[in-house]
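re: that chain from earlier
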Amino acid sequence: MSDADDIASFTAFVEAGGATLFRTAYLIVGDYQLAQDLVQEALVKTLLAWPRLSDRGNLDAYVRRIIVTTCISWRRRRAFHERPVETLPVPGDPDHADSVATHDALIVALGALPPRQRAAIVLRYYQDLTEAQTAEAMGCSVGAVKSQVSVGLRRLRASLGSSFDRVATTDQEVSS
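^ sequence. v structure.
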């Protein structure tokens, strides 16, 4: 964008329609800062395309379209739904050595279970299979899976004692 006339015409366009573009973006996303970012990105894309735009009579429609498509692509991103918070949550994760010891205790306790109970628990909770998928993998009924898991968890609770709940929560957070 080397032509001074292009720069002047783009600046005039932004000054004339900036508030309308912001209002449109705000109504689309519902967040003041996000609308500002959206308009800024749309204007950058418009500025880059400015020399190629021969029909400048429909610039408002062109930039609105950029706002809409950019918003849609942002919403498809996984990180879009993250929101800033006032204070960061304090991680409740114990020391790494504690989690290794806890994991080792769980592995030992799992090893002490009968093979069908161990398989049912591993498939159900570590592999995150449904009861039907676990039953299919084990070649048994869904009721048998429920029974094996129930008895296996009861035995794990008995062997691990009070640390079972801490182990179960830590392992579920790790597998998520």
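The chain has two domains: 4-81, 96-175.
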